[in-house]
Design goal:
434 residues, alpha/beta, 7-stranded mixed sheet, 4-stranded mixed sheet, 17 helices, 15 strands
């Protein structure tokens, strides 16, 4: 998922749509109406609003169409806010295109729902083994999708501010501990220079909540669901470690460290000096480096006790189960898996190249590059969101619980209600078996 702020506007739609998309439809696929003829393959993408990324897709299509005469790929791009609604409508009418992109955390849901087929991209220039694990969409030991890039969570700060208040600048080898982080926030708050020294995008909505905050929950030792079978959230999302996280998370507001609802452009606020520490994504690194230069500190996630964690998985490409010409769809997918396209994607989006070979060809991300630290974060700290068809529902319940906690709700009760709702959903869907 290229998790920019542009992405957040459609995130709540994506979650709701993915849940609705599979409701009562887990029985598989049928005939296809996804192209004008068997040799014409329609491709859908969510990035109509991102011209740089869309240009890369257009380039791959043009190159593929020009490389052979057997197949022709036609592009249809949607604004992100409309994309998932369009997928829902097409799925209901059994008119999905042959090729489409899907947000990484929703791959399992779409595969379970019968809207994606497993793909075979063996023999591609870039083998799957060369990719960051978070950029390959798997479900039940089958590959359904892959992505060209990923992103990383990080803290941004000004070195000068941290030095002024005698706050250690952490490293990958020695990240902040919880006690150090809490001490840093106390110092920054006491300075009187920041109404809220910490910015974590609490005013954003949808997928940002599980993407940004569940890694902190996981670093405390909790999780969104018990990953041993994905059959219950009980004891995991409402267990001792999870409640400890939620209590700490709520205290950030009560202590005045964090606004319970931030502005809609938290990175702009950080650059304006309104906050000292910003929990954000690598997609803003170039902008921040341009503004702050050598004063920019790129800081690893805090180790709250169970190791530093960040979210993993971005937008990925897959093939619909109703595609009439799966050989043609897989031919395009294989063709797209050239190192040069991984490089083009990374440069266009300013995000982490998904393959080892591409990393070496993107100056900012190659070893010694100013943003190579994000590659290291992705390798060392990334945890994919739960690989279960229940994920979209889990995400909405976690968002509601977290918002309640920020608003002052009892942490144990808020998480307990989320667990009750999630387990009811699991039960009503037979644990998404099949």
């Amino acid at each position: 998922m290229v998790f920019r702020t542009r992405r957040l506007a459609g995130a709540s739609v994506a979650v709701a749509a993915a849940t609705a998309l599979v409701a009562g439809c887990a029985s598989g696929s049928g005939s296809s109406t996804s192209g004008a003829d068997d040799d014409t393959l329609t491709l859908w993408t969510h990035n109509a609003g991102n011209s740089a990324e869309l240009d890369v897709v257009k380039k791959i299509i043009k190159d593929f169409n020009g490389s052979q005469s057997k197949y022709k790929v036609k592009l249809q791009a949607f604004p992100q806010g409309d994309y998932n609604k369009s997928v829902v409508a097409a799925a209901s009418a059994r008119k999905l295109p042959c090729l489409l992109d899907v947000d990484g955390p929703n791959v399992a849901n779409w595969a379970w729902g019968g809207y994606l087929d497993p793909i075979d991209v063996s023999g591609s220039e870039v083998p799957l083994s060369d990719q960051l694990p978070s950029t390959v969409g798997r479900y039940k030991d089958k590959v359904y999708a892959f992505g060209f890039t990923d992103v990383s969570l990080t803290f941004f700060a000004r070195k000068s501010v941290l030095n002024e208040y005698d706050i250690r600048i952490p490293t990958i080898d020695k990240p902040w501990t919880k006690d150090e982080f809490d001490s840093a926030l106390a110092k920054l708050k006491k300075s009187g220079k920041f109404e809220y020294p910490l910015e974590m995008g609490t005013g954003l909505v949808g997928e940002w909540y599980p993407y940004a905050y569940s890694p902190q929950l996981q670093s405390f030792g909790g999780d969104l669901i018990n990953r041993d079978g994905y059959k219950t959230a009980s004891g995991t999302l409402d267990g001792e470690k999870a409640v400890e996280w939620a209590t700490w998370f709520g205290s950030l507001v009560s202590k005045g460290y964090l606004s319970k609802k931030s502005g809609q452009d938290p990175n702009k606020d950080f650059l304006a000096g309104k906050s000292a520490l910003h929990w954000d994504g690598s997609w803003n690194a170039a902008k921040n480096a341009e503004k702050l230069g050598d004063d920019l500190a790129i800081i690893p996630p805090v180790d709250f006790g169970d190791g530093p964690k960040i979210g993993g998985a971005s937008w990925q490409w897959g093939m619909s189960s109703t595609c009439a010409n799966k050989a043609g769809a897989e031919a395009w997918l294989k063709f797209s898996r050239q190192t040069k396209y991984f490089v083009d994607y990374a440069k266009a989006t300013g995000t982490i190249p998904a393959s080892e070979a591409a990393v070496k060809q993107v100056a900012d991300y190659q070893p010694g590059g100013k943003f190579n630290v994000f590659v290291q974060f992705a390798r060392k700290y990334a945890v994919v969101r739960p690989v279960t068809p229940a994920y979209p529902y889990i995400a909405t319940e976690f968002e509601k619980a977290t918002q309640d906690i920020l608003a002052g709700a009892d942490p144990k009760n808020a998480l307990g209600q989320a667990v009750k709702d999630i387990d009811n959903d699991l039960k009503s869907n037979n644990n998404y078996a099949g």
